[in-house]
Design goal:
mainly alpha, 53% helix, transmembrane helix, NUOK/Mnh_C1-like, transmembrane
Length: 161
Amino acid sequence: MTVYLLPLILIGGLATAGVYLLTERNLTRLLLGLLLVGNAVNLLILTVGGPAGNPPIDGRTSAGQTDTADPLAQAMILTAIVITMGVAAFVLALAYRSYRLTTDDDVADDDEDTRVLQTAEQVSGPADLPVDDTPTPGAEEPRPAALDDAPDELDAVPEGS
């Protein structure tokens, strides 16, 4: 089997650029990263699909080819194209909605996520400090109120029911 180095380098470059763009917080760059990764996967499937050959139809030949081409790679690429376009349409809708709400397509930190992170840091300490989890023999630590099993009150159930 002959391995062609140029297509593999191209696939690696596309995948690397796509993953780099996926790490950005800008939705337009995220979309471009998804498209680059999708194209890299399509080229990879095409490359590993084998050499060209006769059409996979009985009685059809093509320019002196002796083997029949594998139709599975082509079917998988068509499916991957449809999936990539569906994901691209979804990300475009997200980017449009974000632009309409904030006139910017950068994804900012969510207020609720920030609040949960601050609550977790208050319960367990700052996230960047090393934590010593070795238990002290004979000493029982008090449990934080946020980790109690029984809630003080239930918001969903009215009193007196």
